[in-house]
Sequence to fold (144 residues):
Amino acid sequence: MAAKGVCLHHISRESSDVKRLAKFYNEILGFEKIECPDNGIYERIWMRLPPVFSLHLIERNPKTKLPEGPWSSTDAIADPKNISRGHHICFAVSNYDSFVQTIKEKGIEVSEKTQPDGITKQVFFFDPDGNGLEVGSWEAPIKM
Fold:
């Protein structure tokens, strides 16, 4: 039997600098820090995008051999125009044009697309750790 009552709880991102990453998500997408008890083992920050979406930023385990992100690679994904088919998190904003202008003013490299409908716009870019992000001009989902 499939699970019932499933909903997205949070997305986790590992980082060598969780404070830098938290600042980015706060300034660019409006995430707010929420209570996160110290576990005494590694640094972590919980953030929320009101009303319910959570992001868990966790200090990178120095023992792992995984690359930090596209910035530590020479692969083509390091170009934001390649994110649309790759791994990314997507957000919708109601102020798309001014949002894109703001991230460009902050020096963030972007790739923009307009869908064939001529209405839906999307911008692709990376966070400071090289995680792919997409922001679109869609309406917010209707609450049930």
Q: What stands out?
A: The beta strands are 10-15, 32-34, 44-49, 53-59, 88-92, 111-114, 121-126, 132-136.
